[in-house]
Amino acid sequence: MFYGEILSIIVAITWTATALCAEVASRRMGPLQMNVLRMAASLVILAAVLWLTTGSPLPYGMNANALTWLLASGAVGYVFGDWCLFSSYILIGSRLGQLFMTLAPLFSALAAWLLLGETLGLQAIAGIAVTISGIGLTVLSREEKAEHKHKLHVEIPLKGILFGIGAGMGQGVGIVLSKVGMGLCEGTPLLPIAATMVRAVAGLIGFGIAYAIKGDGQRLRQGLHDRTTLKAATGTILLGPVIGVSLSLLAVQLAPAGIASTLMALTPVFILWPSRWLFGQRISTREILGSCIAVAGVALFFI
């Protein structure tokens, strides 16, 4: 049985639901408020998992060098990357926001080249070109509709595109920084969960500082007292850092990493129809084709 492959598809579906919940929560509560809540709740859940499995709610067995790299990963991946991602949900929607996340392997490859000396093969370069082509086809398709059919109101703001690119950059570079940090850990129990917790600490500190500076606590309090917002925020927290990450780790163990990664990257395709049903967004044939091409580009990185 293809248990790992089946789990990988379930992960893609889970992340699709996470993106949709995050779009709703971010629009109603604000991306900064949502991320503060998400990081705090994730830390509590991860600490509980470590406590139940290792007997300690805190990760141990990491040296200062490893902690530095993992904290840097959390700052880049969570603070910068997730802030850009959740902000892109507000400006261009979770559908396009997730499409830009297919750029993460591109930035991972570039970061690995700079930090680890890993070379880019012809297949990886082809993957970059294919992914960018798919994204370009989708974006140009929506701009074309905006020009000829103004009533659809589908203009894509440049700021939203930049946030999408930033989200892919943060995700891709953050993964490489995590890889370096985890490679320096020796004898750390439940390493992926422990590393995720360290990254979440950096995320909470970064978002907490931004939240303290901005001082907009009213939207957070309103969100916590609004049933729809609270449901969306709960779905974002549980489906993403808890269920999604756990299943993705299991999927990679049960299936070849390349196949698992490619199947988990199907989120931009899976999100098309739910976003139309939930948000009334129109879908063109070129948008479907562009999403499929972008995912095919991701596949070239791994297969």
Description:
The structure is a single chain. The protein has helices at about 5-30, 30-55, 65-100, 105-115, 120-150, 160-185, 190-215, 215-225, 225-255, 255-265, 265-270, 270-280, 285-300. It is mostly helical. It has one domain (about 5-300). The longest helix is centred in the first third of the chain and has 37 residues, at about 65-100.
Briefly say what this structure is.
This protein is mainly alpha-helical.
Number of helices: 13
Structural domains: how many: 1
- What fraction of the residues are assigned to beta strands by DSSP? under 5%
Radius of gyration using CA atoms only: 19 Å
Distance between the termini: 20 Å
Question: What is the number of E strands?
Answer: 0
Structural class assignment: mainly alpha
Mean pLDDT: 85
The arrangement of helices and strands along the chain is HHHHHHHHHHHHH
Largest sheet, in brief, is:
none
Residues in helices, as a percent range: over 70%
Low-confidence stretches: none
Shape: globular
Secondary structure topology:
Elements: H1 3-29, H2 31-54, H3 64-100, H4 104-116, H5 122-148, H6 158-183, H7 191-214, H8 217-224, H9 227-254, H10 257-264, H11 267-270, H12 272-279, H13 285-302
Give a quick set of tags describing it.
303 residues; 83% helix; globular
